[in-house]
Amino acid sequence: MTVTQDGAAAAQPSPAIAQVAYHDGEFVPLERALLPVTTQALQYGTGVFEGIRAYAQDDRGLAIFRAHDHYRRLLRSSRTLRIDLGRSVEELCELTAELLRRIGTTEDTYVRPLAYKRALLPGQKPGVSLSGVSDALSVNAFRMGSYTDPAGIRCTISSWRRPPSDALPVRAKVTGGYVNNALAVDEARAAGCDDAILLNSRGQVAEASTSNVFAVIGGRLVTPPVTADLLEGITRDTVVTLAADLLGTPTDFRDLGRDELVGADEVFLTGTGTEIVPVTEVAGRPVADGAPGPLTTALMGAYQNVVRGREPRYGHWLHPVHV
Ligand SMILES: Cc1ncc(COP(=O)(O)O)c(C=O)c1O
Description:
Layout: E1 20-23, E2 26-29, H1 40-44, E3 47-49, E4 52-56, E5 62-65, H2 67-80, H3 89-103, E6 109-120, E7 133-143, E8 153-157, H4 178-190, E9 195-199, E10 205-208, E11 212-217, E12 220-223, H5 234-247, E13 251-253, H6 258-263, E14 266-271, E15 275-282, E16 285-286, H7 294-307, E17 318-320
Parallel strand pairs: 8-9, 8-15, 12-13
Antiparallel strand pairs: 1-2, 1-7, 3-6, 4-5, 4-6, 5-17, 6-7, 9-10, 11-12, 11-14, 14-15, 15-16
The protein binds pyridoxal-5'-phosphate (PLP).
């Protein structure tokens, strides 16, 4: 099946849309969460965002996974674009929990906070600018369960390179930067594949369109370092932690060449939307025997246990919605 930019599944019906959003400082019916065409972020891509999942817990309602880490990253991204939300990480977590309570769901939900440049302040001349423009925050959410195919996906190596960090702040989750990701996905789909793996300007693996990349090579887990021009994924960090703690497997952070991917024993992607998905084909070649590998499969199981609250030692990663 196809992995899409926003985490929707092309082969399945669209996820049901929850009917409440946070917009303009209040909780409003979703149809009132609208923006004028003059919105600066729409014109110049000057917004930052997050993708967060809330998971149904086995016996304790809904919990937001690593909410603090997502909002810490949102505030970091916001600073890059001079967006001042005037809210703390804790306040943003609580705002999200309140949104989910108002939506009234206890099913798996995807949360999309968006902080953006809104309107020119009085007396400001039109143009591309990060100052002299008001800031805003909107948060919407929709029901979304796991959508990746546990049997694995097929990836191209994109002809679109990941921009270097001296051209675009690639470690911030900036809306405008996602034109690069969209072009890479579009190319992958046109080639009949599910997703694209992008190389950086040095020709080393950076990441996939909306996920980080891991490979298993000679029994070692390898992922590119943050200096490879990638978004430092929160799922990436979760996987590194779980591999070490639960499976006794350390991770090597080092440059990964396209030739190594093609010859790896296992390849998988990690991301909030994606979760952990095996890559069973890269650039038209099967990865090993073309079936998900044992380390990938073990990590997928461990991840589900953690996000659903079955591993008490990681309880601090779960922000309860109903207390
Ligand atoms: C470009 C990109 N890389 C990596 C990731 C994975 O990040 P995370 O695990 O924090 O969702 C995402 C998703 O947010 C992404 O959009």
